[in-house]
Amino acid sequence: MPATTPCATAHTATAPPALISSLAQSGERTALHAGGCMTVWRSWGQGSPLVLLHGGHGSWMHWARNIEHLALQFQVWVPDMPGFGESGDFLLPPHDPERSTHIVECLRACIERLTQGRALNLAGFSFGGAIACALASQLPTLQRLALVGCGGHGSARRDKQALLDWRRCTGEAQVQALRQNLGAFMLHDDHAVDDVALYIHAQSCRQTRFRSKEMSRSDMALRALSQVGVPIRLLWGEEDVTAVPDHMAPMFEQGRHNRITTLVAGAGHWLQWERSDVVNAAFSDWFTAG
């Protein structure tokens, strides 16, 4: 994440949106104690399990525009990962490098309990993509993997502007700082920076205790993928500031014929929000392919 600058004065905060309330009410909430942490999971739908991992400074709400569509075909499981959202946290300092090992072990143990040996699919966004890469080789029933704006590539970024330090703000000023950061870092089209996106971003940021930047900027995903044999679908918005997407394809494909990359024009980092139609269709096709 780029260097931060202090925030300025602001306007109004957003109210909780109907989309989030509806999803929270329709999903089943499960709290699991595994791998040294209490982790909150939500599930929707029936069918084969599909696990979705959110990004850094995120929560289950990163997938708010995808859950209902995917739940028509799959049993969708979405956690707040340890140190995020409603989940607990490890008894480790925020920047402790051991956190990556602990979070992978915690998620592995949870997924094994939730899926009970059934074949499953896995997708990760941003930091969650890097974690998904590390997790993939430890899930013996994993069939397919999808990565959206994947972090952990260790290569060039192209930040548009410095982010505001929202933690130094309060009230309406904090809301405005978060709104500016949402447009600078997460989304490309100004119209995508709406009140629902702002609510998700603000709530998720405020609840984050896990400092994921070092892992996201490392090459952990690429190192982990050398041990992964399942088919992988890779998606990036062409305007994603966290990477140079057209350079990412050969790095992540690593010469494997079963790894496919899609670049989406006019979209930024939070691709599954900004172009939910593209991601929903891609996931439906990918995870039902033979």
The level of helicity is 25-40%
- Structure annotation, total helices: 11
Q: Which strands sit side by side, in order, in the main sheet?
A: 2-3-5-4-6-7-9-10
The CATH class label is: Alpha Beta
Order of helices and strands: EHEEEHEHEHEEHHHHEHEHH
Low-confidence stretches: 8-13
Number of domains: 1
CATH superfamily descriptor: Alpha/Beta hydrolase fold, catalytic domain
- Average pLDDT, all residues: 91
Describe the protein in words.
- This protein is of the alpha/beta class.
- The chain has a single domain (13-288), classed as Alpha/Beta hydrolase fold, catalytic domain (Rossmann fold, 3-Layer(aba) Sandwich), CATH 3.40.50.
- Helix content is 37%, strand content 19%.
- It has eleven helices and ten strands.
- The chain has helices spanning 18-26, 67-70, 99-115, 127-136, 171-186, 195-207, 213-217, 220-225, 245-253, 271-274, 276-288, and strands at residues 4-5, 28-34, 37-44, 49-53, 75-80, 120-125, 142-148, 163-164, 232-237, 259-264.
- Strands 2-3-5-4-6-7-9-10 form an eight-stranded mixed β-sheet, with helices on both faces. A two-stranded parallel ribbon has the order 1-8.
- Strand 4 (49-53), helix 2 and strand 5 (75-80) form a beta-alpha-beta unit.
- The longest helix has 17 residues, at 99-115.
